[in-house]
Amino acid sequence: MDLERRIGRIKNVGKSLLLGTFLLGVTYFGGCEKKVVNSHPEETPPDAPEISSVIPTTNKPNRGMIIQIKDNSNNEKLFSLQRKTPGGTFELVDLLPPNAEKYVDWKNIETNTIYTYRIRANNEEGNSSWSEEKSGTSTGPVTDQISLYPTADSYVRNGTPNANEGKEKYIIISYFNGGEQKQEAYIKFDYTQIPPYAISIKSASLRLFSVDHGAGSQYSQDVYAEDLADGWYESSVTWNNRPYGRGGIIEHAYVYSIEDKPVTWDITYFVNQFFEGTTLNHGIKLASKKDGMAILKSRESNSKPTLTINYTW
Q1: Which of 52, 96, 248, 270 is the most exposed place for a label (fewest CB within 10 A)?
Q2: Mind giving me the DSSP string for 72-102?
Q3: Is 210 left (phi over 0), alpha (psi -120 to 50) or beta?
Q4: Residue 9 class from Cβ within 10 Å (0-12 exposed, 13-18 middle, 19+ buried)?
């Protein structure tokens, strides 16, 4: 066989081998892709969830918003929940686990504020679209109450200017002979017991119980309450070292000579001054400028004085 014909045969064989190799490669990779496609279906981004409702709640002292969620997919890895307030932009609240149905947002919820939420689902392939926005308004101020017993009480009299009466089961307020003979009382409560989360003071009512001192049930004595400007101690206060009233606002109540009849003074102004940081708490002075006498039970008795404070949070 001549050289030209031999070379031609070699070329044909080479073409066949090259073509076979090419076809084999296509068949190989085509089979592999098919196998991959059949064995590992391609994931898609999840469908968008929905927010069914946004409902306010409280858990003293916190406010919250309950977000009810409708899950519309079965392939999410997590949910992204965002919120905003009027005029603000959406910010992330939290990442929720798959299949979440409810979330309670306790994060810095203010009173009477509109909160708008949206949510979307996420997986390795991407994010769903955002849900429709849903809004709710947080609760307004809630009124609560605290009752306190005194931390100290006593009375003093000018007739025995060095006497201390801090251990007595009663306190005496009197005014005779144009003030030549006087007795006045002091009582103190720990205002720091007002919860730190309180927003405002609605009312503060001081209540003591009267003692029958034989003057008859029709007898009454006008006793005024005044905020104190100076400190004092139950075990050492006397007429000579007595604290003085702050002056200005005073509150009046009538004390009858009837056993255990409650007597109430509205001292909201005094408590609120302390709450707002305007004054220090040195207690309350009880005194009179009308001839006569009143006797009230002290914290050492079985009918202790109380201070009832209504506050909002």
Answers
A1: 248
A2: --S--SEEEEEEE-TT---EEEEEE-TT--E
A3: beta
A4: exposed
Q: Alpha-carbon distance 254 to 259, whole Å?
A: 14
d(CA 58, CA 66): 10
Phi, psi (deg, nearest 5) at residue 12: -65, -45
- CB crowding 126-142: b at 16 or more within 10 Å, else e: eebeebeebebebeeee
Sorted by where each begins, the domain ranges of the chain are 50-140, 144-312
Whether domain 144-312 has CATH 2.40.160? no
CATH architecture of 50-140: Sandwich (2.60)
Tell me: the pLDDT tens digits for 50-94? 999 999 999 999 999 999 999 999 999 999 999 999 999 999 999
